[in-house]
Amino acid sequence: MTTLLDVRLPSVTFAAGIQLSTGVTRGAVPTVLAFHVPTYGLGPAGVAEDVPTGMQMIARSLGLGPLGTPPPNVGECIEMRRGTPFLDYGHPDYTLGLPANSAWREAAQRSGPVLITLLFEPLWPRGAAEVDAHYRHCVSRGAVEYGFALVRRPFTSSD
């Protein structure tokens, strides 16, 4: 099992450039799609870290696996705070807010697990068709990892 001490994470600035999208499949499985929106002017490649390397760091931290293998169960890395879901990617101080509607929140809390899919290559999204084409491109290059996460249940006391 990977522990936080075994994984190097990208900078918080890099993580802030991650675009997160949520949805619910026809089979009522809540999903998260993550990719990086490139930023310019931060370094020689335009970002503080190389995008594929930074996204691979986050995939390792979450415990995601490559497509073509059974999706690993990555544990309770989604937490709900006051009705808002957050993805805990392993940083000790920061999480990523998930833009989720009520149908997604209900499906995630009711059924779990949540399918997390992470794309390694950057994209400036212009619409659903472009995101779909980019997803297919990343699949063809082996630049996708995924896994099933659970929603962390709030601690309740038996007192």
Structure report:
With 159 residues, this protein is an alpha+beta fold. The chain has 4 helices and 8 strands, in the order H-E-E-H-E-E-E-E-H-E-H-E. The protein has a domain at 12-22 and 30-36 and 52-95 and 105-142. Strands 1, 2, 3, 4, 5, 6, 7 and 8 form an 8-stranded mixed beta sheet that branches. The model is unreliable at 1-5 and 41-48 (pLDDT under 50).
Attribute tags:
single chain; 159 residues; alpha+beta; 8-stranded mixed beta sheet; 25% helix; 29% strand; globular; disordered N terminus
* 3D shape: globular
Structural class: alpha+beta
The low-pLDDT segments are 1-5, 41-48
> What integer is the average pLDDT?
83
Rg result = 16 Å
Strand and helix layout:
Elements: H1 12-16, E1 18-24, E2 30-36, H2 51-62, E3 65-66, E4 73-81, E5 84-87, E6 96-97, H3 102-110, E7 114-119, H4 128-141, E8 144-152
Parallel strand pairs: 2-7, 4-8
Antiparallel strand pairs: 1-2, 3-8, 4-5, 5-6, 7-8
Task: Write a brief caption for the model.
With 159 residues, the protein is an alpha+beta fold. The protein has helices at residues 12-16, 51-62, 102-110, 128-141, and strands at residues 18-24, 30-36, 65-66, 73-81, 84-87, 96-97, 114-119, 144-152.
